[in-house]
Write a structure and sequence with these properties.
The protein has 102 residues and is mostly helical. Helices cover 94% and strands 0% of the residues. It starts with a helix and ends in a 5-residue tail after the last helix.
């Protein structure tokens, strides 16, 4: 009788240990998933921040390239205007030396 009672209580304790172990495992798994989700979110936010920085840097690089192209075009335009002005001046000088016959 005492032996049966001890065996029954031992079985109840074993069952409680299994239930507690299962609860602990469930809690650990939930915590692991939560940590993984937080890490995933942190990685996602870091990638988004890097994408934003890259977009800003790219926009600055494009703007600088456009400014260089426009600057080069403006310098070429000024050079051509100067050449045209010099050519006109030379033509005027030639016409003054050798007037066209009418």
């Amino acid at each position: 009788m005492l032996h049966d009672e001890v065996a029954r209580r031992d079985e109840l304790l074993s069952e409680q240990e299994r239930k507690m172990s299962a609860q602990v495992q469930t809690a650990v798994a939930a915590q692991t998933r939560a940590v993984a989700a937080q890490q995933d979110q942190a990685v996602f936010e870091a990638v988004r921040a890097a994408e934003r920085r890259f977009a800003i840097e790219l926009a600055h690089a494009v703007q600088a390239a456009e400014e260089r192209v426009h600057g080069r075009a403006e310098r070429e335009r000024r050079h051509l205007v100067e050449q045209l002005s010099l050519t006109r001046q030379q033509l005027d000088e030639l016409c003054a030396i050798n007037p066209p016959e009418s």
